[in-house]
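Extended Data, panel c. Modelled sequence:
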Amino acid sequence: MQQNPRCLIIPLTLLSLLLILSNTIEAEDAGEWTSITNITDPKVTDIAEFAVDEYNRQSKKNLRLETVIRCETQSVVGENYRLVLRAYRGTVFTMPPKAYQAVVLVQAWKDFKNLASFQHFLVRKVASDEEWTPVEDISDPFIMYVAGFAVSHYNRQWKRSLELEEVIKGYQQTSSELSNQPVSNYRLDLRATDGTEAVPATYHAIPGGATSRASVAQRLRQPEAQRDRYTTSTLSNNFDYSSSTRMKGLFKSKPRTPADIVRQTRDLLGYASRSTDGRESKREEKMIELCKNLRELKSILYGNGESEPVSEACAQLTQEFFREDTLRLLITCLPKLNLEARKDASQVVANLQRQQVNSRLIASGYLETNLDLLDILVVGYENTDMALHYGAMLRECIRHQTVARYVLESEHMKKFFGYIQLPNFDIAADASATFKELLTRHKSTVAEFLSKNYDWFFAEYNSKLLESSNYITRRQAIKLLGDILLDRSNSAVMTKYVSSRDNLRILMNLLRESSKSIQIEAFHVFKLFAARQNKPQEIVSILVANKSKLLRLFADFKTNKEDEQFEADKAQVIREIVALGL
């Protein structure tokens, strides 16, 4: 039957949803906002961490600061600091970082800070119509994917059954984005059929976002002549815009079970690991299919935004995944995947560590017999391109106690002292998160490790972390040290640590830091030295020699917010110091 062309315009806008802030602190004599060029200044970092900590306290959230992107100051009665920062919940990849804007009032003469506002930061700048340029290759797999995505969503919204035939022409537009992340808009003319009619359509998309995942708002609109048949609508979905796919079979593929998808993924990974095929087109097609499968596996495990994951499907997927060496293949082939596929793979591996089948963690049993995979993951921190992906996988794998013990007792443990100080901030922060997880999750295993390895471990910890020239490293290290020593499981380690004059010297130097955050964390460790009964004589001698200095320090020592427990601890420390030498 001859098909008659009809016109359908489908403008679709994908917005990268980051975060926002208002409520700046204003005064009648407020000055202009002035940019701070050195956003790595410890003072800026300290204010950013205060903003995140205070937001967590007020909202009962658990954000973790990743980095400061921009900072401005304004003179009021004190100074307003307006910061744009990135923070995340959970791990970097299971919960991608988002952008926030915070305003903090600082009155230095009163040692006072107040969080005025902390909200999502919306980044959006749409380019003008004059900036549209033709798409050179309309057969590009990504362009075909965008077109298929438009048709697929139109069908889901309007219960139609359009099938893409071809892309006729296209235009591309570039917009600015936060932290130099590009945003591209696409306007496509395409032809789709609906059984009895051909429907050319135009599709507009703005994929993008600092998290490399588009959280999208979409709008379907028809030209005036068609609005009696079709109406405007709004819907939303997640759109993976970096991994492309061909349109062959997009609308008529046969349903596959989760086990089928795993088996096909395993075959494709095997092909990727051994392929020496000179035909680039065949290899590219296989890799596109592999990326698509990884995305489907993630959708089964996490849900697709419209439905929750089905436990039976997750169990079937998990059993098949660990039936053979799918995890090994995925880890070794990860460098051959594109960026979005690597992230999908990281999320799949992370989720599978928590999946139970018949009340049993299958992943734990598999890793116990394949501990050499942990060697690959740890050493991954030395590869700039792979560090964050392998780090995210490693952090989830050490949820299993046997796996964590293997890493703790291996030579790899010493490498973390170097990884934490790598010049790449993101990699160093990820390594620090893994290091903390290793030393806090499995308490009995950690206590055993620290007891057996006390001398070399704390020698490295003191010299490379607590005495590091890097502010962030020192702050994280002193906070983690407090968490370790104050844990009851580590009481024997704590007693040994607070008997050392060298350790006390380091802590007293940290008490003199200009950063209030470091001072507070250092105090929580110092109080263990001061409050201990039957102190060694060398500890008493140091405290007595510095008695007047310590009392002056603690006289004006306080937190930014009222904290009864802190004040009680401080009072006890002061009493202990006053009583020395009497």
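Residues 1-29, 123-129, 176-183, 196-253 have pLDDT under 50 and may be disordered. This feature is highlighted in the accompanying rendering.
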